[in-house]
Design a protein that fits this description.
The structure is a homodimer. By secondary structure, chain A is of the alpha/beta class. Chain A is built from 8 helices and 5 strands, in the order E-H-E-H-E-H-E-H-H-H-E-H-H. The first copy, chain A, has helices at about 15-30, 45-55, 100-115, 125-130, 140-150, 155, 170-180, 205-220, and strands at about 5-10, 30-40, 60-65, 120, 160-165. The first copy, chain A, has a 5-stranded parallel sheet, sandwiched between helices. In chain A, strand 1, helix 1 and strand 2 form a beta-alpha-beta unit. In chain A, helix 1 (about 15-30) crosses helix 7 and helix 7 crosses helix 8. The longest helix of chain A is centred in the middle third of the chain and has 16 residues, at about 100-115. The first copy, chain A, starts with a strand and ends in a 9-residue tail after the last helix.
């Protein structure tokens, strides 16, 4: 029987504020970091570059970038270039919601965690996200964890995996304040849904607006470069 | 609000006996079929050809073949060419187990089901599989369904998705008997973990042995071509 290494964690890294703060938290908790990012046909390729930079900053032992065919599935403004990214606030679940995205991401993380015998998967979902995205809600995360603990060889052998969501009750301002306390430099991060190839943000999409409001409410300076 | 179309089903199709029987059952239940296969770095590329043939036989309205980077994750004889496929029966979870494979497959199926507004996902897991693979067990499937019904926009809007496992309590012999009753031709199917490029089976791996035993116990002739 292979024993789960509680001090190894797979950390989902998008290159934005939330996952970067998650990296800092996992590091502070003395986890050995295995960073996982996805190239899933999202508009902002500069997200991947940002993910690489932050994974390096937090001394990830390995950083995998998995190419996923999600544009093949479609149904979101982030993966279907025929659907425009909205530049005003909207009611309900936004068109930038990617069907079952976190379920696909967490499934890959689970596969890698099993191969590594890691004891935790970190994901930066939070209160801002789950007002809009169904797969960021606490009930969903709990159900994924239950399923994950039935899905694997490790589970059969009694080694539990934890889905760690240290930001889940925090708003954006609380997240950047926490990051600042942990010494995070948000300079290399990219939040924008449609950043240009230099990582410069549009300043208009939901994600840009949440970021700006977060830094403003926290009384901090946002190091983002805008187009 | 988009209403779930209970008569659309995403059917996971590997090109083997189980998923082909599943297709026949979904068809008999008058579902409109949307077939989903994965090219995940498995050894037997002829599986994909078999999947295409059977999807066509059962008049799938669409057949997506998604390329997945699972060899990047490793940890299985099916996706890592350095690990040999065993040719004798072994105890416990076999080395052909692919970490979190069904979770990744079902997650993609969930994403597509959401885009299609489909009411069901069919997967051919069964009693033979779940003696070895953790992600074929009834408890696992139930937990995935619970998670799926929290994960999506459709779920938030009250449209439930069902994970249909019509073979779950059947052994191989019962599956091929059921298929025969439904008029299934198993000629185009491929079960072997290491079939050659013509779809000819090794006759030695676990999957070949289960197939042979199934046909023998059912008193039926196996149309497989062996190397």
């Amino acid at each position: 029987m292979k024993v789960t290494n509680e001090k190894k964690a797979v950390v989902l890294v998008s290159g934005g504020i939330d996952s970067t703060t998650c990296l800092a938290i996992a590091r502070r908790q003395h986890y050995r970091i295995f960073a996982l990012s996805f190239d899933y046909g999202q508009r902002a390729a500069s997200e991947i570059k940002a993910a690489q930079k932050v994974a390096a900053v937090f001394a990830a032992e390995e950083h995998k970038v998995i190419t996923l065919d999600m544009s093949e599935i479609g149904g979101s403004a982030l993966t279907d270039s025929n659907l425009p990214v909205p530049e005003q606030e909207s009611e309900g679940i936004p068109i930038t919601y990617v069907p079952a995205r976190n379920t696909v991401f967490l499934s890959y993380a689970l596969a890698w965690a099993e191969v590594l015998s890691a004891g935790a998967i970190f994901i930066g979902v939070n209160a801002v996200d789950y007002s809009g995205y169904p797969d960021c809600r606490p009930d969903y995360i709990k159900a994924f964890e239950t399923m994950a603990n039935l899905a694997t060889r490790a589970a059969v052998e009694g080694n539990r995996i934890k889905i760690a969501t240290p930001l889940i009750d925090l708003c954006k301002a609380e997240i950047v304040k926490l990051g600042a306390e942990l010494g995070v430099d948000y300079g290399p991060t990219v939040s924008c849904y449609q950043a240009d190839s230099h990582g410069r943000a549009c300043g208009l999409c939901d994600s840009c607006r949440f970021r700006q409001r977060g830094f403003r409410d926290a009384g901090m300076i946002d190091p983002t470069h805008y187009q």
